[in-house]
Design brief:
Blueprint lengths: L2 H16 L1 H16 L2 H5 L2 E3 L11 H9 L3 E8 L3 E6 L7 E2 L5 E2 L13 E3 L4 E3 L5 E2 L5 H6 L6 E5 L4 E2 L15 E4 L3
Parallel strand pairs: 1-2, 1-6, 6-9, 7-10, 9-11
Antiparallel strand pairs: 2-3, 4-5, 7-8
Cofactor: Mg(2+)
Enzyme class: ligase
Protein name: 5-formyltetrahydrofolate cyclo-ligase
C-alpha cells in the first residue's frame, strides 16, 4: 500500500467521521435512487455490507431488499484477504469479526459469490472514472476481479470527488455505476 493512499485514507476517514450525520441523512435519498435502478428491480440476490456509523447506512437497504423478496448476502472475510458472500442471518445471527465487522457464519454450501447486484463500499469515489478507495484491506478489489455482475456505489456528498484524489493502481477495479445525492 502506498504512503499516499494511506495518508488519503486517514484524512478521508476523519472527514467521514466529522460528516457522519450528513452521510446518514443522505442514505434515504440514495436508497430511493437505488430502488429505481433496473439492476435493483431485476435482482433476486443483493450483496451488501453492514455499514459503520460513518458510512451510508445499509440497514434500510437490507430491510428494503427483504421486503421486496430479495435474498440479502453479506460478506465474510476469509484467509489470504479473500471474502465470500453468504445469506444474512439477521442481526442476532451475525458474528463480529476480528475487524469488528458483523458477518454471517461460514457455511461453504451457502456461499454465493455471484449476487445479481453488488453494492460496493468505500470511503471515496471519483465521478470521472468510477474509481473507489476502500479501507485498505484489498478484499473488495480481489473479489471484484472475479465478480461478473453489476456493481453500484452509494456515495454521500463527502465521499464524492470529481477525479481521484488518491493514486490508482493496476489492481484497482472500477465500479459500474455511482449513485450520488446530486446526480
Amino acid at each position: 500500500m502506498s504512503a499516499e493512499k494511506k495518508a488519503f485514507r486517514q484524512q478521508q476517514i476523519a472527514r467521514l467521521k466529522a460528516h457522519a450525520q450528513e452521510t446518514q441523512l443522505a442514505g434515504e435519498t440514495l436508497l430511493a435512487k437505488l430502488q429505481g435502478l433496473p439492476s435493483w428491480r431485476d435482482a433476486k440476490t443483493i450483496g451488501v455490507t453492514i455499514s459503520s456509523p460513518f458510512e451510508v447506512p445499509t440497514a434500510p437497504i437490507i430491510a428494503a431488499a427483504a421486503a421486496a423478496g430479495k435474498q440479502v448476502l453479506i460478506p465474510r472475510c476469509l484467509p489470504k484477504r479473500q471474502m465470500a458472500f453468504l445469506p444474512d442471518p439477521g442481526a442476532a445471527g451475525r458474528i463480529t469479526s476480528a475487524f469488528g465487522i458483523p458477518e454471517p457464519p461460514y457455511d461453504e454450501a451457502k456461499v454465493n459469490d455471484q449476487p445479481d447486484l453488488l453494492l460496493v463500499p468505500g470511503i471515496a469515489y471519483a465521478l470521472n472514472t468510477h474509481a473507489r478507495i476502500g479501507f485498505g484491506g484489498g478484499y473488495y478489489d480481489r473479489f471484484l476481479q472475479r465478480y461478473q455482475g453489476p456493481t453500484v456505489v452509494l456515495a454521500a456528498p463527502i465521499m464524492v470527488y470529481a477525479a481521484p484524489a488518491w493514486p490508482i493502481e493496476d489492481h484497482d477495479v472500477m465500479i459500474d455505476q455511482m449513485l450520488t445525492v446530486d446526480q
